[in-house]
Amino acid sequence: MPLHERYNLSYARAVLSRPYIFTVVFLIVNFFIFLLMWGISGTSSAVLWTGFPEPVLLAFGAKTNYLIGYDHEYWRLVTPVFIHVNLPHVLINMYSLWVIGPWVEKLYGSAKFVVFWVVTGIAGVLASYLTVISGSHPGVIGSFLIKSHDDPSAGASGALFGLVGVLFVFGVKYRRELPEGFKRAFGTGMLPIILLNLAIGFVGRGIIDNAAHLGGLLSGAALAAVVSYKRPGQPASVTIAWRIGQIVALLVVAISFFMVAKNFDITL
C-alpha cells in the first residue's frame, strides 16, 4: 500500500474511533425536554405538528426580547438552544446534530465540543435578540435578518450552524494535512450546505430566524479559527483550561434550566 494511502487510512481510523458522548447527551436532553413540553401541552397529536402553545414555549424558556430586556430573564439566552416548537422542528435539528455533531466532537474532543455548542448557541440567540426591531418595516432584503415582532423563538439551529462554521474553517485551515476524503467533506465542501440553508432562510424569512443561524455560523467559524483540533496520535487528555470551560458551559446550561424550573408558570 502506498505511503499516502496508509496515512489516509490511519488518519481516518484514528478519528473515527474516538467517542462522541456529548452529542448523544445533547440529543437525549433535547428529546427529553420536547417530551416534557408535549406532556404539559396535553399529549395531543395535533400539537406535535401545529406547534406548542405560546405559554408552553415561554414557560420552558423560549426567547423573547421583552422577557430578557425588561424582566431580566437572561437565562433565555441559553434555554432556547434546547427547546423546539414542534415535532418536525426537533426531528430535523436532532438529525442534523446526529450527522454533524460526532465529527466535531471526534475532531476536537468532548470538552471543546461542549464549549462550541453552548457558545455558538448563545451567540445565535443573542444575534436573534439584537435583530428584533419592533414596529420596523425592513423590506424584502432587510427582513432576511430584521424581525418587526417580538415572537417567541427557540431551537438548536443556531448551535448547529455553529458546528457547520467549525467544520468549514477546520477544512480550510488544515487542508494541507487532511486526507482527500476529509478535504472533500469539510472546508469548501460545507459551502453547499451553508448556501442551501441561507437560501431556505431567505424564502422562509419572517418564519425562520436567520439572524440566529448567522450568529451561530460566524461564532463557530471564529472559534475554529483560533482553536486547534486533536490530531491523530495526540494524547486523549485535554488541558485544564478546556476542562474548566466544559464544566462552566454545562453549569451555565444547568443554572439556566434551574431558573426555568424556579420561575415555571403556565396557564393554557
Secondary structure layout:
Blueprint: H1 3-16, H2 21-40, H3 45-50, H4 54-59, H5 65-69, H6 87-108, H7 110-130, H8 139-142, H9 157-173, H10 180-185, H11 191-203, H12 210-226, H13 240-262
Helix pairs in contact: 2-6, 6-7, 6-9, 7-9, 7-12, 7-13, 9-12
Tell me, what is the CATH class? Mainly Alpha
Q: Work out the radius of gyration.
A: 19 Å
Please tally the β strands and state the result: 0
Mind summarizing the main beta sheet?
Answer: none
Count of all domains: 1
Supply the helix-strand structural class.
mainly alpha
User: Which ranges are low-confidence, i.e. pLDDT below 50, for 5 or more consecutive residues?
Assistant: none
- CATH names the topology as Rhomboid-like fold
Please give a structural write-up.
The mean pLDDT is 90. This protein has 13 helices and no strands. Helix content is 65%, strand content 0%. It has 268 residues and is mostly helical. It has one domain (3-262): Rhomboid-like (Rhomboid-like fold), CATH 1.20.1540.
